[in-house]
Design brief:
The longest helix is centred in the first third of the chain and has 12 residues. The chain contains 6 helices and 7 strands, in the order βαβαβαβαβαββα. The chain has one domain: fumarase, CATH 3.20.130.10. About 3% of the residues have low confidence. It starts with a strand and ends with a helix. By secondary structure, it is an alpha/beta fold. The protein is globular, with a radius of gyration of 15 Å.
Amino acid sequence: MDVIRLKTPLKNEDIRLLHAGDMVELSGTVFAARDQVHKRLCELIDLDKPLPVDLNGAVIYFVGPTPPRPGRVIGAAGPTTAARMDAFSPELIAHGLKGMIGKGYRNQIVRDALARHQAVHFSALGGAGALLSRHIVSNEVIAWEQLGPEALRKLELRDFPLIVAYDAYGNSVYEPAGTIMDELLK
C-alpha cells in the first residue's frame, strides 16, 4: 500500500485525496491537546475571544506526553481515546480544524462534521508512544502550562505514521465491520 505524505496546514485539496484506510506520513506543525484544552478552546469560541492558535487547516493530536529523557524533545507520546473529545470536536471543526489524531471510534455527530467541513480523523498506533515520539522533532507549550502534560503544545512532526480512520466522505476503517481493517492487517 502506498503512503501519502502530507504537510500541515491541511487544505481541502489534501482532505479530498484521503480515504479511510489510507496510510499517511504527516509532517509540520500539529497542536497537542486533550479534554481540558478542548473545553477551553470551545469556551473562548463561545465568548468570541481570540484563540491561542489558528485553527485554519490545523491538526490536533490527542496526546498528553510524558516528560522527555535527557537529550530528547518529548517523552512517550501515544494517542489518547478520541471519543473523549467528541463533545468539542464539531465546534472546532466548524472553526477551521482540518485534522485530528487519536485512537478509537468517533460518534456520528463528529463524522457528520468531518463530511460537512471537509476534515479527517487519523488514527495513530496506541501503545507505541515511545516509537511515535521519534517523529516529533520539537515540543513547545503555548498555553495553559498549569495543565502539565495536558497543556496546549505546538509540536513539529516529521513523517509521523497514521491511518485515515474517518474520511470526509463518511467512510471509516471500522465500518462496515471487518472490510478495511482486514485489508490493512493482511
